[in-house]
Specification:
Blueprint: H1 2-26, H2 36-114, H3 120-161
Helix pairs in contact: 1-2, 2-3
Length: about 160
Amino acid sequence: MSEITELQRRLSEALERIGAGVEELSVPSTGPEVDPDEHARVTEALAAEKEVTAQLEERVRSLKDKVDRRERELQGEVDRLKQELADYEIQAQRMRRTNTQLRQSIQALREAAEDGVAEPHLINQAMMSELEGLRVARDGDRAEMDAILGELKPLLEENSDA
């Protein structure tokens, strides 16, 4: 950004010099006649300043385009990361809910075992909670693997193009 500021400063100074030169040329001379060689030199200097100004303007435009493009890329990356974070939060909520169910089922089984009673529905409930826990863990692993593959894919494509 400091480079853009510096270029804008230089551009402004160049425009001021050009403006002063134009005013000088447009004011009718009341004094002695202007030397034709001096006039040609000033005209060449003015043309050179205009060319430098055009180059600086193009460079500033190019830098602004690059900054804008990079900003859009970074915003896309931020949006993608926000979505991943939201997905991970959903997974974490599922995992917490499943763990709570599993703890409750285990506690009920433990109490039934202490009472010396075998209750098949408690065993089924515990197994269902455990299966759900395994599904949640598998889904979390799959989401993590997809995220890793998503990061590796551009790198692999770059290497295959090279």
